[in-house]
Amino acid sequence: MAAPMELYCWKGDYGLPSVDVDCLTVLAYAKFAGAPLKVHKITNPWRSPTGTLPALKTSEEGSLSQPSKIIIQLRKQKYNADYDLSAKEGADTLAFVSLLEEKLLPALIYTQWVDAKNYVDVTRRWYAEHTPFPLNFLLPNRIHSRQIERLRLIRGDAILEPEEQLEKELYQDALECMTLLSQRLGSHKFFFGDSPSSLDAYVFGHLAPLLKIKLPNAKLQQHLNSLENLQQFCTNILLLYFPSDSREAPSRKSAVHSDGSDFDNEPHKRRNQILSVLFAVAAMLGYAFLSGIVTIQSSRSQLDERRHDDEDEVEEAEEE
Amino acid sequence: MSLAAEAFVSQIAAAEPWPENAMLYQPLREDQILLSDCASSLAVQAYLRMLGLPVRVHCRANAEYMSPSGKVPFIHVGNQVVSELGPIVQFTRAKGHSLSDGLDDVQRAEMKAYMELVNNMLLTAELYIQWCDENTAAEITRPRYSSPYSWPLNHILAYQKQWEVRRKMNAIGWAGKSLEQVYEDVSQCCQALSQRLGTQPFFFNKQPTELDALVFGHLFTILTTRLTTDELSEKVKSYSNLLSFCRRIEQTYFESQDRDSQSGASDYSKGPSLM
């Protein structure tokens, strides 16, 4: 393998090397395994070879985009973070990754993309600000609807339940999942002894965004903050493996945080109300113009030229 | 499983003991039930038998539509209806029956993780093979699923369900997998379970837990159900400790109990036994 493999990821922010769960997982695994990757941090998924992020471009196998496949590919290239694990630990890895995917991921999708306040104030803003020009109008909404659809299909409901109930169910599972992870981790530095494995990469990928991206509706974050060992676990990995990203954190974080809280409450709501009233008035006036008043105006302008039409025009105006 | 209802249930459930006339509903055993539903149903039955709680199995063609969550099986206890293994476990715990009280925190975390492994890989693989492998879907799944309905409803419902499952596979990234890869996943999952089980009688030593019930439900059903090819059951058969685990649970909780109980409870398994 002459040329290094290339990895395409969402750009980082908030002191994270990437804002996306899957990208974070892959990045962390690559670091743990010591794989020499050429990492492209981009904000335009259309520039990735597969059209989605993350994507790994290899010379032999083409491009891969699912995190599990990327990790298997890295493992094939002898970059294996799980080399020291016993068979039973390998089994545990598989089990806990399933736990994350079934219990935590849906809540994560919900809190970032479905919860209205979080989505509008933080997630959509971030994606709209960072994606390049024509795409920034399109992409956040597209990801949004795709994530909602995904959540609906994962849950197997015909339609998503009303927000409150859905949130309660998802969060209950997610909180339990975090507690279980915390119990499993105990006072260890990593899940299996002193060196990180793929399970650590998955857990880090799922928890770090929760820890770092400040959201207005922060129930999951509060719970994570109460589990000190998990919090410590994420911070450790950030410091040890992504020192350059975590240093940029404070300024940006506080900026976002203050923005978020400014936007939270009444003024935002009232502005929306005023805007929507204005929009409705404009729409009604527009309709009125198009259907009725326009004829009067145009008839006036024609008055001088076509006197013989006068009577008809007046009748029309009276009808209106 | 609505959450408000669940909270309500757990409050009043504790007061009432388990009644004699508890009922479990599932689709028709001979003509209708599918591999995945059968596995889930058997898991719940095994769980209740491990607790020693009596339940009568009722087969209904419209079980799926009777269930509060749209998923089978569900149990009807007293005046409450609970569906799926997870909520049923919570429900019985509220009544004071639990299999996992003896575990410590780490073990409980591991148990939950392995249960999700089964749901995430085995159940999804079953769904994939049923609905996304065109041979199985055409020969077995669609005719069975739609057997209670007449033309044209049978076709509409079956294709609707198939479409829904395929979209789910799309959403979770399984759509691009080939049948071979899915068998590979099943094999990987079984290997993990086999490793975890080792030489112990149950996953957490001497006492069965809900994990044992879930694993038994799925593996036993895979082993005893005829599909277009027997590749799926072959994958399971290559792990001898899982095979003897299934046999052990079948003997302990199904055969010995059936010998001294009445006919209603004996009709549990849809395929032949492992013996």
From TrEMBL, chain A:
It comes from the Eukaryota. This is Uncharacterized protein. It comes from Pangasianodon gigas (Mekong giant catfish).
From TrEMBL, chain B:
Keywords: Acetylation, Membrane, Mitochondrion, Mitochondrion outer membrane, Protein transport, Transport. Residues 41-162 form the Mitochondrial outer membrane transport complex Sam37/metaxin N-terminal domain. It is found in: Mitochondrion outer membrane. Residues 187-249 form the Metaxin glutathione S-transferase domain. GO terms for biological process: mitochondrion organization; protein transport. The keyword Protein transport applies. One of its GO terms (cellular component) is SAM complex. Signal peptide: none annotated. InterPro entries: Glutathione-S-Trfase_C_sf, Glutathione_S-Trfase, Metaxin_GST, Mito_Protein_Transport_Metaxin, Sam37/metaxin_N, Thioredoxin-like_sf. It comes from the Eukaryota. Interacts with MTX1/metaxin-1. Associates with the mitochondrial contact site and cristae organizing system (MICOS) complex, composed of at least MICOS10/MIC10, CHCHD3/MIC19, CHCHD6/MIC25, APOOL/MIC27, IMMT/MIC60, APOO/MIC23/MIC26 and QIL1/MIC13. This complex was also known under the names MINOS or MitOS complex. The MICOS complex associates with mitochondrial outer membrane proteins SAMM50, MTX1 and MTX2 (together described as components of the mitochondrial outer membrane sorting assembly machinery (SAM) complex) and DNAJC11, mitochondrial inner membrane protein TMEM11 and with HSPA9. Belongs to the metaxin family. Involved in transport of proteins into the mitochondrion. This is Metaxin-2. It comes from Pangasianodon hypophthalmus (Striped catfish).
